[in-house]
């Protein structure tokens, strides 16, 4: 169901962009222009494009709300934190020593001396 609404939503988005680009601008640079009478005169095409823009905008709004409701009611976890198992908390005195068994301590490489080695003084 969600895939069908997404496909309809994308088709409406493309049609809306196309209709907006076809409309006559203030200077008439991007409009379809041209003379002639009847329905597709400059006034008639302006009315048709304006009405189509309004209808497509309403359908876009409706599909956006539909997708939001579908996402809200889905069975997936609401947050990535919901999928993480419970973490262990350290007792009160052990949090400051830095030698715990946390995830960062597990990722740390074994401690090796850095720099030149100096023999111990006698």
Automatic annotation (TrEMBL):
InterPro entries: SecG
Topology term for the membrane: Multi-pass membrane protein
UniProt subcellular location: Cell membrane
Region span, Disordered: 80-122
Superkingdom of this protein's organism: Bacteria
Main location: membrane
Segments crossing the lipid bilayer: 51-71
Molecular-function GO term, any one: protein-transporting ATPase activity
Keywords noted in UniProt: Cell membrane, Membrane, Protein transport, Translocation, Transmembrane, Transmembrane helix, Transport
GO annotation (BP), single: protein transport by the Sec complex
GO cellular component, one term: plasma membrane
PANTHER family with a match to the protein in the record: PROTEIN-EXPORT MEMBRANE PROTEIN SECG (PTHR34182:SF1)
UniProt function note: Involved in protein export. Participates in an early event of protein translocation.
Family: Belongs to the SecG family.
Protein name: Protein-export membrane protein SecG
Species: Stappia indica
């Amino acid at each position: 169901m969600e895939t069908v609404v997404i496909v309809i939503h994308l088709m409406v988005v493309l049609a809306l962009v196309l209709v907006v680009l076809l409309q006559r601008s203030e200077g008439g640079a991007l409009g379809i222009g041209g003379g002639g009478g009847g329905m597709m005169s400059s006034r008639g095409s302006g009315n048709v494009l304006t009405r189509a823009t309004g209808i497509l905008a309403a359908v876009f709004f409706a599909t956006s709300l539909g997708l939001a409701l579908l996402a809200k009611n889905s069975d997936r976890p609401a947050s990535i934190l919901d999928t993480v198992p419970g973490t262990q908390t350290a007792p009160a005195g052990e949090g400051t020593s830095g030698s715990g068994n946390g995830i960062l301590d597990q990722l740390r490489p074994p401690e090796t001396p850095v720099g030149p080695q100096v023999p111990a003084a006698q």
